[in-house]
Structures are given as structure tokens and as C-alpha cells.
């Protein structure tokens, strides 16, 4: 058996990769392998898997994951030794050990020294890349070229450095040299690794070819002009970046075809692209897509759980679980039902600490166990559920019958039905549930279940997000995002993003808005 931790986590048995299950199993295996043949305490493993706030069931969940790993690797692979567990690895089975032995043999130093040097060098390069990114954001160009040329020669397969050099050359008026740097990098990746450049580098090459205005240097003077009213162009099928304080568009990130949902989690912005069946992962600091994950189904909604991103797959009738570390789909749960004539569509998904809730046709809400991926229960809503959200105490479901229904988390039984109009989206805020219709927004007091505000907008609303002091709505018909004062129930501002916004989320003062090319019907 062969264990690989340098790169994506893999276990190879008789030349074939073994399935490793979900994020928790993979993380558990990685921690054990990094301490191979050494006992790792249960408390240490729980800290690594759940951080400072483990669930009450952490001990049980740890035992379940250990049991599942033993089924995959063999019972003798993991030993129980006080005060925890140890994975038994023979010499030559772990790629990290082989790597350190080879480096130490070449340098005449111990494997410990070699590993330490490798980690320090990686950390040094990462900090250096971040510094160059900051220089580029401040308008840097030609003055960065000599340093970056040297670094790219030293690290020819490091794509982030190559992209930085391409941008610096372009800003120095050397477009041809910039494109040549891309071609040489592409050739090196193909010859050394058999790979194509990553998506970010490919998009940069295309932007340089068409002289995309977004590549121009932005200086402090430019930023002052922007505050005075300059506009950033938002392309269709993109995510617009809106400064929440100044209420202006400050950037745009191209994504897949027909983005319909956006959320934040695991240090990234995630976008569901319905028409090409993908999920885009955006680095909020670099403001670019760093990974596109194929779903193979029309992704229509997203939810962030404790250790996974969950994707509702619309007419496909399934829910996918994405491991954010592996950046891949690790499980797909089939909720289509048994009918050969029509499948049950999946409309929305919500993630909690110990349950995943899915709005699924024809008129149910499914509860999925996040550890096993198994559907545990179905609640009949009596009508098509189009949205689902948790306020921490109850689950709220918006249905096509024009109702917002409250389900108790413990019993999954509907306890209250609140009459509203035809719903589009639902969100949870401070002591309130907010529901958007096509032209209005309702505020429901989550304690009394009474509608306390009906706000007429007069446009074609879609996505909705709420907090204690602000509510933002995506105005698909008007091409804007609308800010609502929850205290007065009045529209307090709007930002034009163009085209057809569908959903939004905010983090650290920035609103991320998914924007389609065509308005919803």
C-alpha cells in the first residue's frame, strides 16, 4: 500500500486509488499520516478535526471515522493505543518519508533538516508572492519585472509568480514579452508535469490579448477618482464586487455560465453556475477564480457546512458534497425518488452542524446526515418548497402555496404557517425571517411568526441576505442590488451592477453579487 500526502491525499493499493470518504475521514487520515507510527491522542485528533468548538458527539464521530478508515485500509492499519490511535506505515509506503530520505541523501543532512528547509522555503515564497500582489494592487509594473524574472527562472512551475510577471510586463508596455512568458510556462508545465496552466493564468492570457481595462494599474489617485464616480464594468456571467460602505462597484470576476447562487466559507467565495454545471471558487484577496469544480448537473443553490460545501443540483434531483480541501465532489446523494416518469427536483439546501436540509420535490424537506450522507427523514410540506433557512432554533421553509412554514428542528414537524405572497428567496436575520417575492419583501418576526413589514420594491427580486442592521436584495429586473433599513422597512440605497443579478453575500465590507446575462422570467 502507498500513502501520498505530497499533493492531494491519496492511498494506492495494487496500483488503484482507494476511495477515502468525506472531509473528516480525509483530514483524520492526513493527521495520522503526518505522525506515522506515532500515537496521536484522541483530544489532539478532535482539536484537529473540529477546532476549538467540537460537537458533543465528537468522541463518537471520531470512533466512527476510525472504524470507516479501518474498513478501507484494513483492520491492522490503525492501532488503538492509549491515549489515542496510530497508523502503521512500513518503510517506503509514505511518499513524505521517501522524499525526505532522498533530499537528505543528496545533501548529507538529516531528514528532519531537509523537511524543515522545505517548509521554510515554501513559507518564504508564499510571503513573497503576497508582497508582490500588494505591490501590483498599488499600481506596480515595470519596477517589479527584474525581481520577478529572476524568481520565475528559479521557480519555473510556480504559476502565481508567472502570472505576476505577465501582469508587470503588460503594465510596462511589453505585451509581446508578457505573452511569451505565458507560452514558456505552458510548455514547461506540459513537459515537466503533463499539465495545462491553471484557469487563472489562462484567463490572464486572454485578458492581455484583448487589452482588458481591468489589468491597468490602479494607483491611489485612481482610487480617489473612483470614489468620485468612475464606473467598473461588470460583464455578464460574473460576480460583481460592491463596496458596502461606499455603495459602488469596485470589481468584477468572470465565472461560469448563468451563475445563480453565491455563498462564503472556508476562506473563499463559492458560485453555482447552472448552465455549465460547475461551482467556481474565488479567492477574495486575489479576486479571481482559483478552481472550477465540475458537478455534472445544473447547480442551483449552495450551503456551507462545518467541513463541506453542499450543492443542490436542480432538475437532476441530487445533492453534491464538495470537500474544500480536495476541491472535488466526494459524495452525491440521490433524492430523485423511484418514479421512472419524473424525477423529484432539488430546489434549495441549508447546512447545520448536525443536519443538512434539502427542499426537494414534489413537496418535501429532506434531512441528511452530514457524516454518512444518508437521507434520515422526509417532511411533507403539502406544496413545493422553494427555499429553506435555519435561524438556529427552527427551520423555515418557503413554499409555492404562498406560505412560510416553521419546522421544529427536534421533531421536524410543521408548527406554524405564515401567509405571504409567492416566494422567491428566504433569509434569516436578527430576530426575523425575510422572504422576497417578485416585487415585495416580507419581514416575519421569528418569535411571534407574525408578518411585521411588507416592503414594496416594484422590480423582479431574487436573492436576499439579512443581518441585524441591513438587508440586501438582488433586483434581477432593475440590474441593481437594493439596501433596506430593517428598522424602518424603507429602501435606503441601491447600487447598479448591470445585467441581471441573482444572488449576493457579503464579507469584510464587500458584497459579492452573482450576475447573469439575461433576466429571469
Would you give an account of this structure?
By secondary structure, the chain is of the alpha+beta class. Among the domains are: 2-96, Winged helix-like DNA-binding domain superfamily/Winged helix DNA-binding domain (Arc Repressor Mutant, subunit A), CATH 1.10.10.10; 109-215, Tetratricopeptide repeat domain (Serine Threonine Protein Phosphatase 5, Tetratricopeptide repeat). It is 26% helix and 36% strand. The N and C termini lie far apart (55 Å). Residues 218-230 have low confidence and may be disordered.
Brief digest:
This protein has 521 residues and is α+β, with helices and mostly antiparallel strands. The termini are far apart.
Distance between the termini: 55 Å
Poorly predicted tracts of residues: 218-230
User: What's the average pLDDT?
Assistant: 85
- Secondary structure class reads alpha+beta
Count of DSSP H/I helices? 10
How large is the share of residues in beta strands? 35-45%
Kindly identify the CATH topology of the domain at 109-215: Serine Threonine Protein Phosphatase 5, Tetratricopeptide repeat
The strand count comes to 34
Biggest sheet architecture: 4 strands, antiparallel
Question: What is the CATH architecture annotation of the domain at 109-215?
Answer: Alpha Horseshoe
Q: Tell me, what's the shape?
A: globular
Helix content: 25-40%
The CATH homologous superfamily of the domain at 109-215 is named Tetratricopeptide repeat domain
Amino acid at each position: 500500500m502507498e500513502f501520498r500526502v505530497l499533493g492531494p491525499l491519496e492511498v494506492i493499493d495494487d496500483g488503484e486509488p482507494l476511495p477515502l470518504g468525506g472531509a473528516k475521514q480525509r483530514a483524520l487520515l492526513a493527521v495520522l499520516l503526518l505522525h506515522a507510527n506515532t500515537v496521536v491522542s484522541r483530544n489532539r485528533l478532535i482539536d484537529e478535526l473540529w477546532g476549538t468548538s467540537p460537537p458533543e458527539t465528537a468522541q463518537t464521530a471520531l470512533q466512527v471515522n476510525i472504524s470507516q478508515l479501518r474498513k478501507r485500509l484494513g483492520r491492522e492499519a490503525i492501532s488503538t493505543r492509549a491515549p489515542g490511535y496510530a497508523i502503521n506505515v512500513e518503510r517506503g509506503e509514505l511518499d513524505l518519508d521517501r522524499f525526505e530520505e532522498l533530499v537528505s541523501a543528496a545533501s548529507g543532512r538529516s531528514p528532519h533538516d531537509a523537511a524543515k528547509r522545505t517548509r521554510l522555503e515554501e513559507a518564504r515564497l508564499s510571503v513573497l508572492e503576497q508582497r508582490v500582489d500588494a505591490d501590483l494592487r498599488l499600481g506596480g509594473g515595470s519596477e517589479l519585472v527584474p525581481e520577478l524574472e529572476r524568481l520565475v527562472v528559479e521557480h519555473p512551475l510556480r504559476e502565481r509568480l508567472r502570472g505576476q510577471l505577465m501582469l508587470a510586463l503588460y503594465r510596462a508596455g511589453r505585451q509581446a514579452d508578457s505573452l511569451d512568458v505565458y507560452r514558456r510556462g505552458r510548455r514547461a508545465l506540459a513537459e515537466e508535469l503533463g499539465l495545462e496552466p491553471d484557469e487563472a493564468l489562462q484567463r490572464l492570457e486572454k485578458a492581455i490579448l484583448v487589452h482588458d481595462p481591468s489589468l491597468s494599474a490602479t494607483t491611489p489617485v485612481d482610487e480617489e477618482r473612483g470614489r468620485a464616480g468612475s464606473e467598473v464594468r461588470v460583464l455578464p456571467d460574473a460576480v460583481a464586487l460592491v463596496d458596502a460602505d461606499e455603495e459602488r462597484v469596485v470589481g468584477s470576476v468572470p465565472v461560469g455560465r448563468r451563475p445563480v447562487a453565491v455563498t462564503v466559507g472556508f476562506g473563499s467565495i463559492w458560485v453555482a453556475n447552472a448552465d455549465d454545471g460547475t461551482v467556481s471558487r474565488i479567492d477574495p484577496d486575489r479576486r479571481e477564480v482559483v478552481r472550477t469544480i465540475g458537478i455534472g448537473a445544473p447547480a442551483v443553490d449552495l450551503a456551507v457546512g462545518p467541513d463541506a460545501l453542499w450543492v443542490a443540483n436542480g432538475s437532476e434531483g441530487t445533492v453534491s458534497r464538495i470537500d474544500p480541501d480536495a476541491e472535488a465532489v466526494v459524495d452525491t446523494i440521490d433524492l430523485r425518488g423511484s418514479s421512472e416518469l419524473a424525477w423529484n427536483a432539488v430546489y434549495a439546501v441549508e447546512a447545520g452542524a448536525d443536519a443538512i436540509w434539502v427542499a426537494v420535490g414534489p413537496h418535501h424537506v429532506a434531512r441528511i446526515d452530514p457524516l454518512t450522507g444518508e437521507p434520515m427523514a422526509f417532511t411533507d410540506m403539502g406544496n413545493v418548497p422553494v427555499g429553506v433557512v435555519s435561524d438556529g432554533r427552527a427551520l423555515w421553509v418557503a413554499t409555492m402555496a404562498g406560505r412560510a412554514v416553521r419546522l421544529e428542528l427536534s421533531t421536524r414537524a410543521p408548527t406554524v404557517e405564515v401567509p405571504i405572497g409567492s416566494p422567491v428567496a428566504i433569509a434569516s436575520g436578527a430576530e426575523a425571517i425575510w422572504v422576497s417575492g417578485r416585487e415585495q419583501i416580507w419581514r416575519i418576526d421569528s418569535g411571534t411568526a407574525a408578518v411585521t413589514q411588507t416592503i414594496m420594491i416594484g422590480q423582479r427580486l431574487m436573492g436576499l441576505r439579512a443581518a441585524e442592521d441591513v438587508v440586501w436584495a438582488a433586483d434581477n429586473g432593475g440590474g441593481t442590488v437594493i439596501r433596506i433599513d430593517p428598522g424602518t422597512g424603507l429602501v435606503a440605497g441601491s447600487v447598479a451592477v448591470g445585467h441581471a443579478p441573482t444572488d449576493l453575500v457579503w464579507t469584510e465590507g464587500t458584497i459579492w453579487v452573482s450576475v447573469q446575462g439575461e433576466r429571469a422570467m
